[in-house]
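Key idea: predict the complex, not the pieces.
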Amino acid sequence: MDNNSNFLAKYIPNAITVLSLCCGLTSIRFSITEEWKIAILLIILAAVFDFFDGWFARKFKGGSNFGAELDSLSDFISFGVAPSLLIYFWALSDLESLGWSISLFFAVCSALRLARFTADIYLTPKPIDLNTYFIGVPSPAAAGLSLLPIFIYIEFEFSFLRNPYLNLINLSLIGFLMVSKIPTFSFKKINLSKKYAPWIILLVVIICIGLISNIWLTLIILVIIYIISIIYTVMINFKSN
Amino acid sequence: MDNNSNFLAKYIPNAITVLSLCCGLTSIRFSITEEWKIAILLIILAAVFDFFDGWFARKFKGGSNFGAELDSLSDFISFGVAPSLLIYFWALSDLESLGWSISLFFAVCSALRLARFTADIYLTPKPIDLNTYFIGVPSPAAAGLSLLPIFIYIEFEFSFLRNPYLNLINLSLIGFLMVSKIPTFSFKKINLSKKYAPWIILLVVIICIGLISNIWLTLIILVIIYIISIIYTVMINFKSN
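Result:
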């Protein structure tokens, strides 16, 4: 029984991470062939796998150095390289070198953030998820923010959102937010005590129903709520300092 | 003076790693537009930067956790993802899903190897480059091995080397070699004592002249020498066990 649980703890999270990595890499393939919706869905699927892999590793206390390293590589592809290439092919390719340099900038910021985050795991004696806030925007959230213009474009067909300069500014800004030291809300910190459990389950159910009924609108709402949460935490910390 | 040296030790290796990462990412861009030679040269440039970044970090004893993490991300792009996409677009894309799965396999093997390698840095008390052998083929060498068919194709125009099944077998085999535990020769171990220094400098000069005069032929020779070195170390270890 214990052996079985060890087996789960050791291999399942890493197997899920590899799935997440494959989704991220395959998203690049569909960005190249301009199948935007599939490319985006694969990044979202990578995020779902990434969430479950972290959850599994914590649940079975199987978090290993190897797992943390693999997770960092997978996150870099799925939330750094794949979104930057997607936005490049969707909106920036007309700008040629300028467009490419901004895509590179976004990917490099994502690498710097992930390298800092993973190196910190080895430094902190306490588990990282006890912290109330992340420092800077984490890479999966940055991927969501960078893709907001394309979500709105798909749902409402506002063609100006495909403007290269708009996406260029958006990508640069999110790049800076990733490496910045602004505090951002960590959803791992959500109070999971029994008192709140029914409400959280209800919320998750509502989000799932939303994603199934109208995925693009739901994603737009989620990203906007996240942007509001950033403004809120920044304002709170600005006041308290 | 000391401050200056600290500054060099801290920032130069990471800046070189970022350059290496940018070369790897840009190689992907040129693979997509089928400019094979530029894509290959960018991977080689990434390898050169990767070598100097490691050398700088050792020289100034500035190897940090952050640097190791960033290096792992950069290596994954330059020697895992970029070569696998290059070979996919050059030879495997006609096989569609099958071709893509082999490219994914190569990239995943590279991730598994780099994750193990980076996680081990934190475990071993002694610096990793004191080991005589690497365990398995390191990712820059794997990139060189995976690109051998295209080197020969460019130099000698043997069109059968672009055969998808040949490249499929080649990529799979190298994927296995990366995660395998076979011993491979570490060139960091080369004896740099004063006695041998002139010969090593001569060798480096010859390689540089070769690369400048006929880069493809020199690369073919270097990769073939590396293959012979793998066979040699495997045979030596097979005998001694």
